Amino acid sequence: MYLFYYYSISTSISNFIEIKKFRTKKINKNTNLITTIDK
Question: Could you tell me what percentage of the chain is helix, strand and coil, using 3-state DSSP and rounding each to the nearest 5?
């Protein structure tokens, strides 16, 4: 039971990190687009 709990927590944390990374990537892409448009 404890092992399963630990596993689910670690999985959700890694998913959260992945989502965060993906979002920051997307934001960086958007800012790059904006800067190129400004030039």
Answer: 95, 0, 5
